[in-house]
Amino acid sequence: MLMDDMGWGDLGINGDPARETPNLDAMAREGMLFTDFYTANPLCSPSRASLLTGRLPIRNGFYTDNIHARNSYTPQEIVGGISDWEILLPELLAENGYRNKIVGKWHLGHQKQYLPLRHGFHEFFGSTNCHFGPYDNKSRPNIAFFRDDHMIGRYFENIKIDKNQQISDLSQSYIKEAINFITTQSDPFFLYWTPDSLHAPTFRSVPYIGSSSRSSSYGDALRELDAGIGKILDTIKQNQTLANNTFVFFTSDNGAALVSTTDAGSNGPLLCGKQTTFEGGVREPAIGWWPSRIPHSTVSRQSATIMDLFRTIFSITDIPMPIDREYDSYDLSPVLFANKRIDTNIYYYRGNQLMAVRNGDYKSHFWTFTNPLEQFKTGINFCPANFIKSITTHALTNYTQSPKLFHMIRDPGERYPIPENSIEYKSVIHKYINLYNKHISNTIPGKPLLNWCDKAVMHWSPPGCEALNMCLPVPQSKPYRCDWPH
Amino acid sequence: MLMDDMGWGDLGINGDPARETPNLDAMAREGMLFTDFYTANPLCSPSRASLLTGRLPIRNGFYTDNIHARNSYTPQEIVGGISDWEILLPELLAENGYRNKIVGKWHLGHQKQYLPLRHGFHEFFGSTNCHFGPYDNKSRPNIAFFRDDHMIGRYFENIKIDKNQQISDLSQSYIKEAINFITTQSDPFFLYWTPDSLHAPTFRSVPYIGSSSRSSSYGDALRELDAGIGKILDTIKQNQTLANNTFVFFTSDNGAALVSTTDAGSNGPLLCGKQTTFEGGVREPAIGWWPSRIPHSTVSRQSATIMDLFRTIFSITDIPMPIDREYDSYDLSPVLFANKRIDTNIYYYRGNQLMAVRNGDYKSHFWTFTNPLEQFKTGINFCPANFIKSITTHALTNYTQSPKLFHMIRDPGERYPIPENSIEYKSVIHKYINLYNKHISNTIPGKPLLNWCDKAVMHWSPPGCEALNMCLPVPQSKPYRCDWPH
Ligand SMILES: [Ca+2]
Ligand SMILES: [Ca+2]
């Protein structure tokens, strides 16, 4: 279960004062809450590519080098998408008898060759892109919505979203689709459930309007997904075989998009939000659930990432992993099943640049960046209310000669850089400099897949448009370097 | 149980990533957690005066008007202290057969006439002031430490504190004193347990050094108090009569003192810290515990204050309250025992100035202030990492003509003032303007007690010094207006 732009602080059990997540809080009581769980990147597409490949974006290609250290993703102009060479989680599972379904947002490319059914999934119900729009279908087509390998409509046309009132039934469809899938499988299955109603502009179905204490569309959408997760878990619990054999992991693809102010979630005490390599950009709400195997009501302080789910799932299923490539994935089985702690390195990237490294209690920033000053001045703010001198910088700032060091337990908000002349700094920093240098010299970047854009690849005529009579004329191809503004 | 400078975000159950409070978290599971509980003032002395009188500092006199809207407290130069006219919680309880004891920091004046045994307490073990020092006993005496009505030593002399290593056994003494009192009472009792080891400079006893994940003195001190609270509750639980008849309330006197950086607690997602009328200054961790009467594992979003404990206790004990004075105290019994919600107004003061008002989901700031710019430039920062334009102002800023409005559930961090031209603002603001005006016109300020200072009143020769041969020469009295810098 992968949320879209949900923040660490949105979980009631992570201290959200409004306590909008009773079902997730119950899930945590029945399982293991992770306080220090990370995504692989502070943005949707690279994070999702990393979840499914077990590899950092710098390896699987979900980054750009058009500009140094810039975030990139897969808007409908993007030419690139998930590489055929990558071996995705569902591909390996499919080879071993699993039935795989994705419900929700794919975001690994929308051209035919990138669609989920070409990459290990047997079923798909959702979209390849965010629910942006509506568009005029002339300068820009509305985003296609898919059933398996073909479109079944477009957002704002067949898939209704009332953008002004922030209303849609889509999350309800995703909840039903999940429950229906779970209750009809005879083989082992992998469900990748990834609704995107928490991504601005957020939406909720009519019965949830006003359901949140926050009295906001975001709050209502959170209530709706929380209730849906409760239903999905109940479905599993009601069947003894399912209950005994189903591992559920809940997390989010990146931190709360504070740039969207009140149409966004909360990162609690963490610094900044989506788009940044501060904790608010990459530390996620995370719960492991498997009542018969994971100790109940446990809180793990283990530093881990979304990529670890890759190796963990193959460890649990006893499926051998490929040995022809590098992984950025630890087996979390000892953590999940015995509440042990393992030594992990967390690498924080922005585009093609390794920005920071965490190991154990410390995190060191080698580069800092929020967004360019000119952009910030127009009101685009990834760190509303946050200002930390020399840290929340509006220039990409190189600290490789004197890295910034933070104690992540004492100071999870990254407020107080440890003074460089302190004993603590001097006794610790070399480890992080070594980790940084070693990672860079040992990491062979994959080919960047998010450099090129082309209006011709947009959702003019996706597979299936003919049957619906919804094909639109495709303009002439004019590839250009995508502009990544931050 | 009143902590000193503990922050809202320090409770594990309020989302502290380090989860340093397992016993308090368990207390919350056995009782009711309040998410929106306030102190009466962002500073020690006024907050404590309000707890024990059920009245705002503006009424009980724990404020200054030397300068407009400035914080004040009771350092050892202070001439003032709690007024004889005030009727304190323990006074009313004593009249009704209760045995009352204060363990820890008094902070309502240290001259003879202000001591706890003159104001309703039968026993006192602690100090009248903070554990500041050590001093030279020439220009400034070390702070006296009391047993009942007489000093039994001084901090840094008889009451050992290793300031460099931040070590003291004092919290252990306070824990033992509490348990001993609880287990030896035959009459009903009131224990006011208020250790001050979380007030910077924090300290902990040797066994707790390194006990916290934070690896800090503050973290260790928090672990030590949490463990002590566990022991105290166990003591109550082990005796069926005590268990059935003891109401325990846990909170803190003001928000985390972020000015002390890593020697301070956490306010979680809340704005700024101690000294301010932003949420980080005044919203507190709070737990009500009475397993036989308070529903277990409940979270109450009720807005309430420390002053409400006054009326609540007299409601529970069926003791009539004085009718000759105004109270700022609501009876929380329906909240505690039936999880109901009542309509409350929260008034946020700084010195003699009403700064903000909360009712229901909204809070409106009529004045904003952090600290003077000149002081801020010397490094004194009540809002580290926080900067919100027009809100975290370094000048006392008058917004009475266009009050700032925040939705406290959607935006507990007070990041996003609701636009003045929005329907939401227009439909809501008048209520708050009325509350502000009505409160000011209906409130008759008490005589300000914290205006005058005098070196002659310092701890030169407290009661009991003769027996210890610890009297110091008292300098000539030279009263002067206290200087309150922020
Ligand atoms: Ca996202
Ligand atoms: Ca205090």
TrEMBL record, chains A, B:
Cofactor entry: Ca(2+)
InterPro entries: Alkaline_phosphatase_core_sf, Sulfatase, Sulfatase_CS, Sulfatase_N
Alphabetical list of Pfam families matching this protein: Sulfatase, Sulfatase_C
Keyword terms: Calcium, Hydrolase, Metal-binding
Sequence ranges assigned to domain Sulfatase N-terminal in this UniProt record: 2-319
Transmembrane segments: none
Coiled-coil features, chain-numbered ranges: none
Any one GO molecular-function label of the UniProt entry: metal ion binding
Matches recorded under SUPFAM superfamilies: Alkaline phosphatase-like (SSF53649)
UniProt family annotation: Belongs to the sulfatase family.
Protein name: Sulfatase N-terminal domain-containing protein
UniProt source species: Oppiella nova
